[in-house]
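Morning, I've got a small favour to ask if you have a moment. I've dropped the whole record in just underneath, so have a look.
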Amino acid sequence: MLQRWMPRRRRVTLADVWDKVSPAQLLVISFAALILLGTLGFRILPGLYTGERLGWVDALFTATSAVCVTGLVVVDTATFFTPFGQAWILLLMQAGGLGLLTLTSLVMLGAGRRPSLRHSDLVTGAGSAFPKIDVRRLVSVVFRTTFVIEGIGALLLYGAWVGSFGWEGAIWPSIFHAVSAFCNAGFSILSLSFMGEIGHPIILGVTMSLVLLGGLGFLTVSELAAYGRRSSERRLQLSLHTKFVLAGTAVAVVLGSITFGYFEWGNTLAGMPTAEKVINSLFASIVARTAGFNTVDFGAVVAPTALVMMILMFIGGGPASTAGGIKITTAAVIFALMIARLRGEERVSAWNRTVPEETIGRAVGLTVLASTVLVGALLLLVAIESPSQSNGEAEAAFINLAFEATSALGTVGLSMNTTPTLSEPGRLLITALMFIGRVGLLSVGAAITLNAGRQDFRYAYEDVAIG
């Protein structure tokens, strides 16, 4: 009789489990599932290879590199894969560049369903920078903008390549590289990447433009589009976010190209006309921030150049973009904080606007986290790849491994010809870095944003001596 009145245990449904998944967990799960799908595709799908099939470790590495739009490769994409295999890589690049959650949001919108707040936070990735953003409109703009820009880029590349590849032969390279450039992936189906195009300013110019547009971020691109229109007979003001992105990008590109040209003028750029040296320096600076194309052999650059490229790779592009790194806005906020402290100012401001303390804390926390991950991973990578080398050999290999680790964490894809020589444990570590760089840091950033302000108490103050 008592059993009759006992409350029944509620059955746990899939919807209950879904509601308990945090945005950060959802982001990680989505990208992990896409990488798993890509890995299985490389192992199972027929007709992807011209010869031997990739092993499990290399399949995982390549799938992660494509989904995380990195571009590091262990085999030559141009010769190892058939057009079907290259198409599989392109599909993974496109899905990873747009973001799996953006894809699912589009499906939901098409079915007439409104995305949840969790989906909205992950799709925009903007936090409080754009509090009035219309997620439905943003998703639509993301897809329309992506395919329009990629289409225009493919047409321009086709026009430049048709003389070399022919009317039919130029179609696939144009499409593949337009997608790879805008998604900031860095995959190329040219065996020498763009090293054979150093004297073609149109090809390099189109590629640089695609990389820059993909690295600015959809939020910035959307605001710039709105800025060109008038609202209520007055011009809209650009947000502080967009100003930081544009100014930071300009400074990084200019300083990067100047330093690259200075150190490589008589080295990897030697023998080129002055105009070609300038445009190839600019190309190197732009792609180093997020896309792994190259017009020179990075295995031959001098140490100062490698260091400058690592700094650019660590910083990356804009938020809510296909770029990696800690993001240009994070670096800009850290720089503004340094300037404010040197001036003795308590608050951080720029363009007559004050940056919130919470945003400064997130920027510092993300930078410290990324630096810690990079140093720890580099220590492991050096221990794995050069445990028994002499001091001279280890020092020579260190810069190559540091460059590789930074490129992986920044999801850039540039390499000093080190990737194919890595051992399987080393490749697995680089795979983990690519995943962390694309998903992990974003997840931590989202978690910090969503958890901000939840602590409703504080402990007593006690100062600490600094410096």
Observations:
- The longest strand covers residues 230-231.
- The chain has a mean pLDDT of 82.
- Residues 135-169 form the longest helix (35 residues).
